[in-house]
Amino acid sequence: MERVIGIDLGTTNSCVSILEEATPAVIPNRGGYKTTPSIVAVTEAGKRLVGHIAKRQAITNAENTVYAAKRLIGRKWESPQVKNALMTSSYHIVEGPHDDVRIELRGKPFSVPEISSMILQEMKLVAEEYLGETVSKAVITVPAYFNDNQRQATKDAGAIAGLDVIRIINEPTAAALAYGFGKNIDKTVAVFDLGGGTFDISILEIGAQGVFKVIATTGDTFLGGEDFDARIIDWLVDTFRKEHGIDLREDRMALQRLRDAAEKAKCELSGVSEAEINLPFIISTGSNEALHLQTSLTRQKLEMLTADLIERCVEISRQALEDAQLEVGEIEDVLLVGGMTRMPAIQDAVQSFFKRSPNRGVHPDEVVAMGAAIQGAALVEDKREMLLLDVTPHALGIMTFGSHFEELIPHNTTVPTSMGKTFTTSRDNQTAVKIIVMQGESEKAEDNELLGEFILTGLRRAPKGHVEIEVTFEINTDGIVSVSAKDLENGQAQSIQVTAQSGLTPEEIRKMADDARDFMVERKTDETFEAAKQKAETLIASIEGLFGEVERAVGGADFGRDAVDKGKRAITSARQAIQSRNGAKVSEQVAQLERTDKMFRGVLSGS
Amino acid sequence: MSAAYLLPYPTAGIDPTSLPIGPREAFVLSQVDGLATIAELSLGTGLDEELVSEILVRLEALGAIRFGEAAPERPSGISSLGNTSASSTRMRTVSEKPTSVERNASETVPPDREAHLTREQKQRPRFDEALLDEPADLPRATKEEILELHGNLDRYSHYELLGVSDDADRKTIKSAYFERVSVFHADRFFGKDLGNYKARIERIFGALTKAHDTLTRAQLRSDYDRYLRSRRATHGVRDSLPPSGVPVSPSGAAAAGSRDSLVQPVIPRAPRSPSIFSDALLPFELESTLDGDSSLPPLDLEPSSEPPAEPRPGPQSGLRAPDPAAARRLLAKKFGHRQAPSSSSSTSTSGLLSVDKEQVKKVVSEQMRARYEARHGGENSQIQRYVEMAEEARGKREWGSALNSLRIALSLVPEDARIGDLLEEIQEEADRSMADRFIEQAKYEEADGHMDRAARSYERAARGKSSGSHVERASPLYERAAFCLLAARGDRRKMVELARLAVTLDPKRSSARIVLAQAYELSNMRTSALGELSRALELDPKNEEAKQLQKQLK
Known about the structure:
The complex is a heterodimer of chains A (607) and B (554). With 607 residues, chain A is of the alpha+beta class. In chain A, the strands form eight sheets. In chain A, strands 1, 2, 3, 4, 11 and 12 form a six-stranded mixed beta sheet that branches. A five-stranded mixed beta sheet of chain A has the order 18-13-14-15-19, with helices on both faces. Chain A has a five-stranded antiparallel beta sheet with strand order 22-21-25-26-30, with no helix packed on it. The model of chain A has no long low-confidence stretch (mean pLDDT 90). Chain B has a two-stranded antiparallel sheet with strand order 1-2. With 554 residues, chain B is mostly helical. In chain B, helix 2 crosses helix 3, helix 11 runs antiparallel to helix 12 and helix 13 runs antiparallel to helix 21. The longest helix of chain B is centred in the C-terminal third of the chain and has 31 residues. Chain B is 58% helix and 2% strand. At the A-B interface, helix 10, strand 19 and strand 24 of A face helix 11 and helix 12 of B.
């Protein structure tokens, strides 16, 4: 049976895992790291870079390096989150054709799912190299508080990467799964998941039959490590401006250096109480003079800068408990997930809110991918070991008269779930009905997330009120919404046309998937070429080094001159092949060079 | 298939003396032990199988027994005894889909009895077996399990659905839920083509989850428990509303209308007093015909129009269906058995006798005479007993039983105005005393999204409130009933009717007029709707909703 990988597609780091003999194993990447930075870059030569290598070149290639794309996935151009990102990102964000967001890299616009697909493709490759076989099925995790658009876009990213995404699961739920899997426990647990970009809190019941039931989940998809970093950056920028009267934000490279320094300082402060920030030559002034940024940040200062963020996490946790109708004392264990939970102030806040010390048995960076791998295996294998019952984090409803939001499925409803609603025509001979589907908690429609406008077309011509269409709203186990409709009189299914959806169209996804596949082929060719080139260059150097000796040894003889000429010709054709960037040709030349090298060495040893 | 093989089981905790039955029924009832098949009961009682079946059906309607599936590893020794009749035993079981008679009958069972039924006991194959052929990558047994549960979701209380007792604690409920959802969840069949079964599994899953979510939250559970108690307390009173379309009178003056509704087979089939009917236990449908009920075609006793064969096996056996042909067959059969008593015991299927038209006429005329005497004698002890039972139950405020007894009495003598009036009176009394309970139920049902049920409960409540001196108090309830029916997209005539009542009882309520206008609009009575809206606006010129509607209509 084909194996299913679990991918934690994080804001700052991603991780891939697979179930091996009933134990989830995290797969290290080529560099030996268990997590891979969720960073994508395009070099000047048009080369795509993903992961650590992309991160390393970020400072020198800031405008073409995308980090934290997850914060933009499934977002609309008009959304405040995108406006915010426009202000702070070092890369170019432009408006897409569907009221969505595109990121311009070296002049070419990429959709956010495409960017994410590059990361997914990298994770797929990591798994394939480890397993020695191709992988096509995956379970991908998303923040529990993701809405339908964000989930859909994540699924699209999977499709573009050539993955069959058999399930989307929520990150905190995945963490709970990894924590409770196979342990036969009966407990009510809270999962506090503060990652690079998002915060989720989920309350679950784990019980008999390996059932994991989420009771309540809530969160904030714009609250995470990035925001903590931003506070440090703000502080650095403000301090610098006060001192020198220069705004470092205006220089993209300076901003990227600040970002790195801030993250580094934040991480250091989880272990020590004071961190040095030292950025020499951060910016040059007009008068040919460079300025340095040199300061130190104390843990206390950091906690002061981020106190409101921590308070917000606690506030959201309180909301989750309220939604679950549970008292703090009823929570039997608290799991900390996400790199940010290493921050002592956060651990303290969790401890004082839940009145118990949090569980330290799970790895905050790896546990989510492990949970995804467990779910993947449980679905395709016929063993009835576990069952995940998750909830929808947002209420689903429609916009009614006067821009009012009519809730159909409340938040925290266990999925899959569905709800029927009857619509009638309001005019004689009306042949179409428009239904505006939204997700959110506000009574005012405009404060909620628009999922799509569904237009029922081709209705029977009849006096008004005579055509009754039953529309079924459904949320599946991925948390993805679908809408279907049927005519109540004749039971016929009605066609639904979706407009104003911000996601990608199926054609676009197909095309992007093709591009991605082509790119993979290209990348493979590239890799063969690079390898051949390297080999060729080594041989050329070796042969060139031997010319003098060979000439000295057999220069007088005709065959000697011949040999030297042959060698020179081989080097020339090899250089030409390298110039043409044709891997196969280079490989041919490598063979020729090898013969020459061997011959030279033979001549020398024989003499 | 296992679905068709059913056995009668006694209902626990039932007192046979409380039942309106005769010695035959009592005899059969005494033999029902959950082991004996119909053939064996026939042997044991010396009554023919046809008769036993009929009695059993009646007993079931009274809640004295129920039909359940036979245990699979039942010793086969006995079946050889009833060899000849095996097929007729099987066919007689209740594999047909529920008729309204059956459903209503079971709901008239007093609450305490109902409460004793466990989930398994109530579970009967109530699914369309054709659905088993729908393609799905599932074993047949799984399909049956899914169909059975899916078909019965609405009948079970949350407790029954999870298979826990009413006083189960949170932990028990939680583990019962986990146990059951790990069977009924689409992920258990991941990658399989489930066809239409996917939606069914998801509905079952949804119902189980709702049961769990309600029962594991203190507030929700206590609300639900109150609702359940209330429903049980109003059993028997609850579902005797006239079918929609029959005009309801708020003052209860339209006795004729109500009476009509009461002789509809909303009630259990009345057991006939042996004193009246001697040996012949005629099916109810035939009796109606003899009474000249115009709802059935005139009785044609010509046996040639129907082969005098035994009722065919299979779901169409029609024992309960109000089918005149079946009634005719039965009559023919009864008659035949009386003519040839020797064949009555074990070989019921063999003695198919041709029916003498004259004899049939004779029987019928005898019965009519008996009926006539019963009606006009008035002192007939059996009827008197029902009336006394009703009065007694009324004294104890057991409205369900009181009404039930009277309905039975009335079904015996439908023209007896005295009984009719008494029934009307008790019904009103019951409604009055139950009105608040009905409001309580309606509110719960409305909040729970069961708008059609809520409409019925509001209507019942309204009827209860409309019989006092402050009839206008019923107006908001009728309005609410109409509103819920609107929301449920229910019967349009009914919603107009309810809204009209709301307006009639309190003409000054603009909101009632708006609901009426909406009901009119839905029924395509635009002029009336506009009229109602302008009257509503006269009463309340600032009403935005009315203005909005008016704009839409124009």
